[in-house]
Amino acid sequence: MYRVEDRHWWYRGMEAVTRAVLDRRVHSTSRLRILDAGCGTGAAITTYLADYGTVTGCDVHPLALKFCRQRKASRLTFASVSDLPFASAKFDLITSFDVLYERAVSSDLSALREFSRVLVPGGRVLLRLPAYDWLRGQHDKLVHTGRRYTAKLIARLLEESGFAVEHLTYANTFLFPIALVKRLAEKVFPPRDGSSDLALDAGRLNGVLQKILAAEAPLAAGVGLPYGLSVIAVGRKRTP
Ligand SMILES: C[S@@+](CC[C@H](N)C(=O)[O-])C[C@H]1O[C@@H](n2cnc3c(N)ncnc32)[C@H](O)[C@@H]1O
Hints:
alpha/beta
């Protein structure tokens, strides 16, 4: 991830989509207290979340935190999303990008309840998760997927953990047909090598694919997209 996340079309395109979703709901000048839960190797923290406030990152992988430090992220905690070492009502915004789907997260619902605890009333959670269990492929084996989601399922989990659903959309919609063909082909002809989708070098297409994904940003942040490879949700913690 560290090697590819600065230039791979998927990361750069998703950054455009995520910024658009955030810009609709939070102001970049509001200096929020942000937790990036499951921050990975830190690109989101240092490339764009820092524009919205002071970002703390947490992850259970020591190597991920080491790469975050190489990116000069300074507020880092070795901690699980299921047991956050923070006082209640400490953050205004929690982002969690492609984390709760992991097998290592034994209960997504418990993690969301923990997010709710450390958020101020009215605080927001922004989730991005892989879509549709029937789309499982080789990539999922390599990235330890425990489950994939639908918008409906995420809405239910948010409601059950104390959030009002503010926004729901799929993303990576325009390229969905290509991904579908690839995943179906994998089912018929299982690949022998062990490479994930992120290892795919798109070569000269990298810029084009990035533009196609980024072009979804206004729709994903606005009316929402009806299907796609990822689901994005914004929940707002209910006031007691
Ligand atoms: C697919 S990566 C996503 C990383 C980053 N959020 C991003 O979008 O690039 C999933 C991350 O979740 C972390 N993770 C897995 N289980 C976790 C847990 N229980 N608590 C915190 N982080 C966890 C992994 O170590 C990994 O860094």
